[in-house]
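Course assignment 3, question 2. Fill in each field.
Student: A.L.
Task: Predict the tertiary structure for the chain below.
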Amino acid sequence: MAMADIFRLRAQYHSQNRVKKSPRAVIMVCLAGGPSHLDMYDLKPGAPSEIRGEFQPINTRIPGFDICELMPLQATITDKLALIRSLQFVEPMQHELEEVYTGFPISQKRPSFGSIISRFQPAEAKLPSYVSLDYAERTTGYESPQYLGASHAPLQVSGTSGVRNLSLPWYMKLDRFIDRRNLVRNFDSFRKETDLENQGLNLDAFQTRAAEIITSKKARDAFDISREPEKVIAKYGGKDDKYIYVGQKADSVWESHKFLIARRLVEAGVPVVTLRIASWDHHGNVVSGAGGTIFQSLKSALPLLDRSIHALVSDLHERGLNEEVLVVVWGEFGRTPKIVQNGRDHWPDASFALLAGAVKGGQVIGETDSKGERPKNRPLSPQNVLATVYQSLGIDPKTVVNDFVGRPTSILDKTEPIHELLV
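Answer field:
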């Protein structure tokens, strides 16, 4: 036999006999501000000019899975992507991200999906179960664990200068840190009555987990993208990449490193990573007032988003993580079909969600009408998307937890996952 025959048969053997991996992690990419479905993933080239916008759709590897011409890299991997075009939100036209992170409007005050996963599918002891690469220094309302307790809050990481809260200060040696931790334990021994309360127990668990993470080399290394080959880092993008939000100058930073950190974290064993990227709130009075248009902004931002999504999805496949990691990309609503003052306003009646990794790719689910105003068929909600995430990770969407007053509360009201996506 020739060497090529040996390699071919070996690959065939492994393909036929490999054990299928189960989904164990999710990366959620939030396009906060309301990304325009009509200019990105649901273009309407046959609609009137005041609706269709400036961009044209391009064909992809999957018939019917056409996307914006500014995203050619994704066009080459649509067999690895799944697109929902019939997503509807209920939040009344405000920039509340609660539906994206919890499935419910802000008034419901429900736990973040990451906190749910942390509760039922936590990471090993020396890794965080939930990491947020948000803009904020502290946990925001939409990522709050609410009545699940402080131990299920995300590890919050912000900025572009690394992970400031995952290492000891320069003046704090490890021995001194351990002494301080023991001192806290001694003080806590005098507070037995307080420790009987749930919040006290939650904080104790949180402190313990935080200490384990800080002293864990594995956790710190997962955040260190300098360990990646230059070729891989370049694939995700440069630290100086910028895009136009308003006006005509590219002066807003595109934080491509977040996608690479997210991949490193789930590869290390973190079950949930969330990140926000760019600003997508393209009102006419915002962009026109600064001498720009929604299309100028998208012309600079969409190629960067295209590269980031392509890098993340292809990287997961190349590393054999695609069956273990689910990727969800979406925002809190779409934008108005009719263009107003060179922009589009908020539109919760139609939006999209892009999924990859541990889902059945190569398909488009749902359809909007000819103007992209509302679903023509298969209307779906954020809760259906989160039910799919839970189901994929082995969490029953019908699970019930106790709220602050001990009342049994379901983690979702709409518990039906999107069965077309389940692998």
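Instructor remarks: The chain is about 35% helix and 15% strand. The chain has one domain: 20-410.
Grade: pending
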